[in-house]
Amino acid sequence: MTTLSPATGTAPAPERAPARPVLSLRDVRIADRAAGREIVHGVSFDVTSGKTVGIVGESGSGKTLTCRAALGILPAHFEVTHGTIELDGTDIATLTPRGWTAVRGSVISAVFQDPASYLNPSIRVGEQIAEVLRVKRGLGRRAARAHALGLLSAVRLRDPELVRVQYPHELSGGMLQRVLIAAAVAADPRVLIADEATTALDVTVQAEILDLLDDLRERTGLGLVLVSHDLALVAQRCDEVLVMRQGEVVEQGPTAAVLHRPRHAYTRLLIDEHEQYGLERFRTPEENA
Ligand SMILES: Nc1ncnc2c1ncn2[C@@H]1O[C@H](COP(=O)(O)OP(=O)(O)OP(=O)(O)O)[C@@H](O)[C@H]1O
C-alpha cells in the first residue's frame, strides 16, 4: 500500500537509487616492481557524496599507497597490478596525462601531513590559491584574487585579508593546513583525501580542522577519505571504516558495527588500546548503551 506524505498529502517520491560513488575501489592491489612484491593485497570501498570513509591501521599498512593510487601519484616503481579505481564513474586506467590534469583538483583532491612542504615558501599564500583558481577554473587575475580571499575565509582563517599577503613561514601549522585545504577545495572536487592531515597538530587544532572538513562535507556534498592511525578520530568522524594491516583490509564496515562487533583480533587490539584513554567518548550514546 502506498502511504501518503503527511506534509503534502501526495504519494512520497519513489526511493532513490543509491548515489553513484564519487570514488570507488575494487580489489585494488599495488606492487613494488623494484622489490618484486605485492604491498597492498586487495582494497575495495566506495565513497559517496557527503560521506566519510576512514582508513585506519599501523604504520606501513598501505594506507597512503592506496590513496596515492586513487590520486594517480604512486611512487615511481609502484603500480596497480589488479582491480579498478573509478573517479566519478571514470576508470582511472583510461586517463591520459591530460585527463589527469583535468581530474586532479576538480574531481579528486588531497591534503597530507606537513602542509608547509606543499606550499612555495617565497610566494604569498593568497597568490598560491589564486594560481590554483586561474589554472583549474580559468578565472582571471582579479576574480581569482577575490575568490582566494573567499576561500581563506571559508576555511575559517581569522584574518583572511592579512593571511593572503603572508608567506608560509609566517603561519602556524594549523593555519597552513587550512590554507592547504582552501587550495585543495578551490576547484570544487567531489572527493577529498585527508591523509594524516591533522596528525602533526595539537588536539584542539586537530579538532578544528576536522570540524572544518565536516562542515565542507555537509555544505558541498564533498566525499571524504580520512586516513589516520588514530581509531578514536575515525570512530568520531567516519560513516564507514577500513582497518588495514600489512597491506590487507582485515575488517571493514559501518563504523559502529566495526567498533562494537570487531571480528578481527587486530581491530580488537586497536579498540583495547584506545579504551585506555576513552574511546567511549567518541561513541554516540546509543552505541555506548
Ligand atoms: N616511496 C616508497 N619507496 C619504497 N617503499 C615505500 C614507498 N612508499 C611506501 N613504501 C612501502 O610500502 C608500504 C606501505 O606504505 P604506506 O606509506 O602506504 O603505509 P601507511 O599505512 O600509509 O603508513 P604510515 O601510517 O606510516 O603513513 C611500507 O612498507 C612502505 O615502506
From TrEMBL:
Keywords of this entry: ATP-binding, Cell inner membrane, Cell membrane, Membrane, Nucleotide-binding, Translocase, Transport
Domain of life: Bacteria
InterPro entries for this protein: AAA+_ATPase, ABC_Ni/Peptide_Import, ABC_transporter-like_ATP-bd, ABC_transporter-like_CS, P-loop_NTPase
Record's bilayer topology term: Peripheral membrane protein
Subcellular location(s) of the protein: Cell membrane
GO CC aspect terms: plasma membrane
Record-level Gene Ontology MF annotations: ATP binding; ATP hydrolysis activity
Domain ABC transporter span(s) in chain numbering: 23-271
Family label: Belongs to the ABC transporter superfamily.
Protein name as annotated: ABC transporter ATP-binding protein
Phylogenetic classification of the source organism: Bacteria, Bacillati, Actinomycetota, Actinomycetes, Kitasatosporales
